[in-house]
Amino acid sequence: ILLLNRLVNMNGDMALADKITVQANKVRELKSSKADKSQIDGEVAKLLALKAELGEQSNDGGNGGPSKSRKIILKYPKGTRDIEPHQMVVREQVMNKIVAVFKRHGAETIDTPVFELKDVLSGKYGEDSKLIYDLKDQGGEILSLRYDLTVPFARYCAMNKVKAMKRYHIARVYRRDNPAMTRGRFREFYQCDFDIAGQYDSLMPDTECIKIVTEILDSLQVGSYKVKLNHRKLLDGLLAVCGVPSAKFQTICSSIDKLDKEDWLDVKNEMVNEKGLDGTVADKIGTYVALSGGLELIEKLLSDVQLSANKSAVVGLNDVKQMLQFCATLGIADRVTFDLSLARGLDYYTGVIYEAVLTQGVKGEEGGSVGSVAGGGRYDDLVGMFDSKGTKVPCVGVSIGIERLLAIIEREEEEKAKQRGGKMRTIETEIVVATAQKGLAEQRLKLVGELWDAGLKCEFSYKPNPKMLNQLQYAEENQIPLAVIIGESELAEGVVTLRDIQSRNEEKVSRSDLVQTLKDRLTQIKSS
After folding, report:
1. pTM to 2 decimals?
2. What whole-number distance in Å separates Cα of residue 463 and Cα of residue 13?
């Protein structure tokens, strides 16, 4: 049957090839006779269709599978990357520091599916909704890859009737964005989120989120930074005072949100020419969004006749004022700036919003802003959108832009490794178990098993009779500090030879004392 299928498919390909030859000849004849262009174009289209049909059959292999002759281009998809071992070392160190901060603030962790029902994600991200990856409909649920970790958390709270929770979540998210790999902007990337759900009367949870950002950025030593602070109610009041129709609030906020990447003239052009805003209204907005400062700016805006007459603006200004006072109490006021250009384009924010921006790179170069490395705010209505009774659970949170931070830190660590004249260490092995003569593979395996059982990090050569030089060279190249060597004489005496790889000093150690001796020596090495 398989042979018959192949013959049928082969005959089909031959018949199609004959049709292509006939059609190609027809096109050539029309061109040589200088026939009407529309007639030639029509016959060329038929020729291309036949060639496409032949290509599909060839790729299908005539069997519903890929052709053996078809070449696969080996590459990762645009906007993604493989994480190399030396990058994973940095990644794990950075993640551990971030998690330590989250845990210090009493958070517990959860995980959610990498895809959600499309309806769960729709209508939550403003103009960025176009960046959501929709999955192909295969006759079941209509699904999309998660865009962030906030909306899945709100869905989780609504499903599980969570009324109060302090949680962190570190996982991959997906955005059909235009990637900028060198700046840490990918289509698949990690987010590190911290959120506080629950009804609280003060803005202390909001302030704690900003404190967490400062603790993380300080621990990672990524250079100087500032945390920009604003309020969505203040923005709504400001837009109303400037004369923006309420129906355009969200789309104009999305334009304002681009001010960290584009200058005011480009943003104004988008507002006026693409979104239909009156030019004089846009100019009024421009006078406000150029302002930044501290408590003195709050007082100035509270005395503004138009703003002070808008209830929403006054609520926002008073909240920001309280936040700045709390930040001063926590000793972080010098790193927090009230900035009216901050908008955070996502639809679900309802109160305080904030964003951290690096102002100095790891190497100390003055490069201005390198983009947001953390952002978040209050979203009191999001959980209620998923609850059948509309029950609200106020929430506030922050997301750490881990990929942008890693892009900076990885470059710094690679530079440090080059200056040291070596490569970054990617394994944690502490001991190499080596043998000096042939025929000792089983003895080597027995000894390394004893050390593994004692909780020590060991390796050994898989070769039956490895050369001594190669075993020690492996330890040197991988910065493994100790080697335990056994030979026939050591076995006869019940000892091993313990070698310090860096100094090359050796000593005899009894097998019965070996584990404790190794632990003591490793403690000394780590402390030095």
Report:
1. 0.79
2. 52
